[in-house]
Amino acid sequence: MGRPIATKAVILRVVIIDPDNTTDIMKDGGYCWPTAKGRQFVALKKMAVAEVLNGISTRIPERKHIRTMYGALTKPPADSTDPEEIDRIMSDDDLSNFIMLAKRVYAPIMIQAQLAPSNPDDKSDLDTPSPDERE
Q1: CATH of the domain spanning 3-122, picked from 2.40.50.1020, 3.40.50.80, 3.90.550.10, 3.10.20.90
Q2: Which of 13, 55, 65, 102 would bridge with 108, disulfide CB 3.0–4.6 Å?
Q3: Number of other residues whose CB lies within 10 A of the CB of residue 121
Q4: In what helix (H) or strand (E) does residue 94 lie, and over which residues does it extend?
């Protein structure tokens, strides 16, 4: 369950990264932030991961799912290099803490949602690099 946000919604810009789309991958093997092809604004009334996922669900290709999400604690550079600080978002508490910090730094707040194949037999997402070197 998400925690309610005081009076108005928080606007997130969610960057949807598909590792199968080469335009989402930078030369150094990382993922694009501001210049990624898939983007969606999501208005959060509650700080809930499910609300983010629901907000981008129409942009997720068939047979794909979200592998993981990362939030940029500093504004992502326009050249699409990695932000100075990123944090993995795995729970409603992670999302809440991330938003509390990031909303004081820049707007709109950016989250990167990395896709992976939905086929459980397909292990290709194991080779997908994560921005913070964690699996």
Answers
A1: 3.10.20.90
A2: 13
A3: 5
A4: helix 92-102
Measure CA of the first residue to CA of the last residue in the chain; give whole Å: 25
Q: How far is C-alpha 83 from the chain's CA centre?
A: 13
SS3 80: coil
Residues in the chain, pLDDT under 70: 1-7, 27-29, 117-135
- The per-residue pLDDT for 32 is 78
